[in-house]
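Example (one chain per record):
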Amino acid sequence: MANHSENLNAKMLFTEHPTPQFRRDNFRLLNGKWDFLMDFSFARPENYPETIVVPFAVEAEASGIARSVAKENYLHYRTSIDLDEIPENQEYALHFEAVDQVCDVYLNGELLGHHEGGYFPFEFSLKNAVVGSNVLEVTVQDDTDSDLFPRGKQSNENGGIWYKPTSGIWGNVWLEKRPKSHIRSIKLIPDFDNGLLRINIDFEGKIESGAILAVCPDDHEIKVPLDGLTAEIDVKDHLFPWSPDHPNLYALKITINEDEVCSYFAMRKFSIVELDGHKVFGLNNKPLFLTGPLDQGYWENCGMTPPDDKALVDDIELIKSMGFNMSRKHIKIEPMRWYYHCDRLGVVVIQDFINGGSRYSKFLITTAPFIRYKFNDLKMFKTFGRGNPESRKAFEKDMKPFIDLLYNVPCIGIWTLFNEGWGQFDAVRLTEELRKLDDSRPIDSTSGWYDQHCGDFESRHIYFRPVKLRRVEGRALYLSEYGGYSLYIEGHAKIQKKVFGYKVFDSQEKFATAIRSLWEKQIIPLVKSAHLSIAVYTQLSDVEDEINGLVTYDRKVVKIDPELMKELNRRLTFDE
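Predicted structure:
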């Protein structure tokens, strides 16, 4: 594999549209070199003495800054935008994919808007734009350890399983032209059993005319007139189910008045089904064993931002080449292009919510892999880092925008609500709240530890000891993390403090032998003996001090033969 972060070109970082499921053709990426200053004042500066490469976080080497950010710091960005004159009925819209955490955006000295939270996209209309040169300024403050905002693996005390913070702009920034009366959002609801796609539309303005065009995988076109905010497309005569082996996608174009948005969808159904009297994961009403890696989405020198679009594709193609059919996206929201590539290449995604709250008990973190604690999470707010009621409110407030952002993504098959107790609270009630937001996907309520007997899975993490599981009743059995085998490759690691791993090997031969033994003696037998439904191996790539990846942090060395992995994963199936 290639290291895409070695030769970054600040003028050509990304060229593709950032949101393939909601695409207008008239867009311009604003990534590249921006003016930059980090100081201790909220006031916008007159001088910007440094240059930063957007969209890389301040801490990332690729940004050109590579410095730590304190909660007292303010990050100031500035760039110029040249705008053409547009008709009175059109406007420019400015999009940010991700800014961590709290930011204010100004155009020509006037406040465009304010945004809080480090993982969700947001946009502003450029109402005070002028023809010619415009000055865009962004002011950001990031308190990584705040208990009010989601942060994933970010920590000011990085090391081990915790990584360097991600501060400032870390996602694409782009500009688009659109009519002032425009499509704000769409919701795509596949009804697999009836061969229908239902569409809900949020539109700014009055609908005068509209139409929907779907292009099936066999190139058959279905045209539907639109006279309201809902529509149905009947594809039962051209039904091409989506699966990892056959990732069929339908093209979609929605036209209302003068606005046109391109998208795509898939016909698939995720559910829990019965197999030999036991619950298992199902795709399109049939049992499907899911095997895949834990994928944290970090890149050497770039942090949480991919160096380019091909880096996303390379990771997914590596997953497929090893015979995996799933990826667990671990407590991070990826750029929408990552999900698009999973959609088109055929990878089921288990999507984690982003954990937050304050740090919780180190004693529990280190002992929970060995002791099955039975805690009531209604009585453990402080222990699990949710002692602040405002922190709990913030998590609940983020649930809807999280689902709204990712609902349409065909490949997402399972939601993970809480992981290993990080920020966990009231899991029973929040599982039901999540089902109200999306009843089309199974839920792993408490991944790994502190089961509250809710959700669709009994979800276990097993490290340090042999994997032994028993059959469960009423829910599917899910090995949501295991393995973590570590192999240090000289010259291809970026250790911050000290090497971290669950079981360490000193050669690729010993590493491969151990992986084969793990699959053959522990994991494969569980499919029949315990009706295991899903298995997530830790992990896809090394990340900072963690060297338990199947590929190195720089993506240059694949530590194990993909053909061996493919042969082992072929045997993880309900069919044999």
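Caption: The first strand starts at residue 27 and ends at 29.
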